[in-house]
């Protein structure tokens, strides 16, 4: 288990990189707690794997240093960093039995056989592979092989961290849910530092204590699922987390009042705006209320998804999503009201503070 320090890390795959845009990973400067469960979440190409490979030692960053518990490991190999990794696709020994595959990382380190047996049996149970312990890996499905890979990542008790790169991609949906919950439980029991790469928000939000949201080579926010939902620091976080994502509307501001397409919206306080910049309001669909009176809105579509309804509407020339509780009627000639305390103000996509 280790605290991971990312000290002014940048990475470019092209050695001649100069401009910020040349870097696959723009500057990352953070400290991740010992024993934390982190998810790296973001769309394809945003730099998640690059950052994970820098932590594991598969990639040396172009700039900056990385430390485990304060000791510089920038020039150490994965093996020397004492890290377990689980990749997107299975890495198993086909000719070995399931049991021996799981035992391999332990036997390799001369762990006493009684301890090997205890650990392997725990993992067999966790991954639902107990019934096939004596079968050779060859001939198993991709799904079963990936469970072996996952088990091999989890079997050692002496690692500094366990890194997962989209480990559940080939697992069927029900088992995905089971394994995610098991991983969470295992994290609580073991206290390993875990870093989990995914582009799936459900996976990230159920697994992690802290979600690291990445966009275009940058970490745009590190927060608990609740923080990301309630106070996204960047419009991308608002849009990426939540279903549907946050509504973002271009606006102008005068004191504690915003104007969107000629409609006036009250804010909770006057935002502290920078001298220049593109101003937008962000409000989650859960905090827009449909009611008689209110600001004019055109309802275009209603999607009933069981727990609630999603209303797709147009407000002041902008698309707007509204979440309506299942039991509530959608009034004829509906208008809308925004909860002022739930409105965020963003300048050039970054959240600004409110009030003096
Ligand atoms: N070996 C490489 N050589 C050159 N460019 C690379 C290399 N690996 C990644 N890149 C580029 O770096 C950027 C970040 O890629 P990275 O794989 O880290 O993103 P990601 O968020 O993990 O994406 P995905 O979810 O698709 O794996 C992308 O623009 C990608 O094309």
TrEMBL record:
GO cellular component terms, semicolon-separated: ATP-binding cassette (ABC) transporter complex, substrate-binding subunit-containing
One Pfam family in the UniProt entry: ABC_tran
Keyword Plastid: no
Every ABC transporter domain range: 4-241
Protein name: ABC transporter ATP-binding protein
SMART domains linked: AAA
Originating species: Xaviernesmea oryzae
Keywords for the protein's UniProt record, in alphabetical order: ATP-binding, Cell inner membrane, Cell membrane, Membrane, Nucleotide-binding, Transport
Family of this protein: Belongs to the ABC transporter superfamily.
Membrane-topology descriptor: Peripheral membrane protein
Molecular function GO terms recorded: ABC-type ferric iron transporter activity; ATP binding; ATP hydrolysis activity
Compartment list: Cell inner membrane
């Amino acid at each position: 288990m280790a605290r991971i320090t990312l000290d002014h890390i940048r990475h470019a795959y092209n050695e001649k990189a100069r401009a910020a845009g040349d870097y696959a990973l723009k500057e990352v400067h953070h400290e991740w707690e010992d024993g934390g469960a982190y998810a790296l979440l973001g769309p394809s190409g945003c730099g998640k794997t690059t950052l994970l490979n820098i932590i594991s030692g598969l990639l040396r960053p172009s700039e900056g240093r990385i430390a485990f518990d304060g000791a510089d490991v920038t020039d150490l190999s994965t093996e020397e960093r004492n890290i377990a990794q689980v990749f997107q696709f299975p890495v198993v020994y086909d000719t070995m039995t399931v049991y021996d595959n799981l035992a391999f990382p332990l036997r390799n380190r001369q762990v006493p056989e009684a301890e090997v047996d205890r650990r392997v049996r725990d993992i067999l149970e966790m991954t639902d592979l107990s019934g096939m312990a004596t079968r050779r890996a060859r001939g198993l499905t991709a799904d079963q092989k990936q469970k072996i890979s996952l088990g091999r990542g989890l079997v050692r008790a002496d690692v500094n961290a366990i890194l997962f790169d989209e480990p559940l991609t080939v697992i069927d949906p029900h088992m995905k849910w089971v394994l995610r919950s098991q991983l969470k439980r295992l994290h609580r029991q073991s206290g390993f530092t875990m870093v989990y790469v995914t582009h799936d928000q459900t996976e990230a939000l159920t697994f992690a204590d802290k979600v690291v949201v990445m966009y275009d080579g940058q970490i745009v926010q590190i927060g608990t699922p609740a923080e990301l939902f309630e106070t996204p620091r960047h419009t991308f976080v608002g849009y990426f987390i939540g279903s549907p994502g946050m509504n973002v509307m271009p606006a102008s501001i005068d004191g504690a009042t915003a104007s969107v397409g000629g409609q006036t919206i009250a804010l909770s306080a006057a935002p502290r705006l920078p001298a220049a910049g593109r101003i937008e309001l962000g409000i989650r669909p859960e905090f827009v209320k449909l009611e008689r009176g209110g600001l004019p809105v055109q309802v275009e579509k209603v999607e009933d998804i069981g727990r609630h309804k999603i209303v797709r509407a147009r407000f002041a020339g902008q698309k707007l999503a509204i979440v309506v509780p299942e039991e509530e009627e959608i009034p004829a000639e509906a208008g809308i009201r925004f909860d002022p305390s739930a409105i965020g103000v963003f300048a050039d996509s970054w959240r600004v503070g409110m009030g003096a």
